[in-house]
Amino acid sequence: MIKLKVGEDFPLMDSSQANGEEKAIVSVNEAFFDIVFYSLDPAGDKYFFTKKPLKIGVYKNAAIPFIVLEFIGKFALDCTINAFKIKSEKVEQWHQNYDSNIVNLYMVDARTNNLQAIRLLGVSQKIQHTIKALVELQLKKYNNKEEVDRQIIEITNTVPNEAMAERMVAKQIFK
């Protein structure tokens, strides 16, 4: 069992991810997924990350689910799921745990890899089913992870986070 402790090294991702770049990464688990937000301003972001209203939703484009997190009044970020990067046994577990809806949010210092905050979300069935359906569709539409990555880059370069947030097909607000 892995123990997580705020203020200590974040063990769930490769520490090389904390490379001084602000980003959000999806980490698929056997039940659903986690989102790791690497923050360049963890002291300034922590209050919004843990205490303020948060809108989570799915922006879909070209069979790719973009999970959008909008920390209302502060910032928005997005992350994606490339189905070809998910290990096949995890996809099977997703099918077995079809109703799992727990998303763990982790805020990690982008420079030190220290865990700064944790927030647990139970997302709606609409969000959960939309994401899982898009992952299945993605496996049918594309041939490999490189095709999906190219499409993700194209969409990310042409659709700003704010536009994704406005066009979410499934969304939920946590207060």
Number of domains: 1
- Could you give the distance between the termini? 30 Å
Enumerate the strands of the largest sheet in spatial order, edge to edge or round the barrel.
1-2-6-7
- Estimate the mean pLDDT confidence: 93
Low-confidence stretches: none
Helix content class: 25-40%
- Sheet-strand content, in percent, reads 25-35%
H and E order: EEHEEEHEEHHHE
Task: Name the structural class.
Answer: alpha+beta
Strand and helix map with partners:
Blueprint: E1 23-28, E2 33-39, H1 42-51, E3 54-61, E4 64-71, E5 75-80, H2 88-96, E6 102-109, E7 115-122, H3 125-141, H4 145-158, H5 161-166, E8 170-174
Parallel strand pairs: 2-6
Antiparallel strand pairs: 1-2, 3-4, 3-8, 4-5, 6-7
List keywords for this structure.
175 residues; alpha+beta; four-stranded mixed β-sheet; 8 strands; 32% helix; globular
Would you kindly provide a written description of the structure presented here, covering whatever features stand out?
By secondary structure, the chain is α+β, with helices and mostly antiparallel strands. It has one domain. Helix content is 32%, strand content 32%. The protein is built from five helices and eight strands, in the order ββαβββαββαααβ. It has helices at 42-51, 88-96, 125-141, 145-158, 161-166, and strands at residues 23-28, 33-39, 54-61, 64-71, 75-80, 102-109, 115-122, 170-174. The protein has a four-stranded mixed sheet, covered by helices on one side. The longest helix has 17 residues, at 125-141. The mean pLDDT is 93.
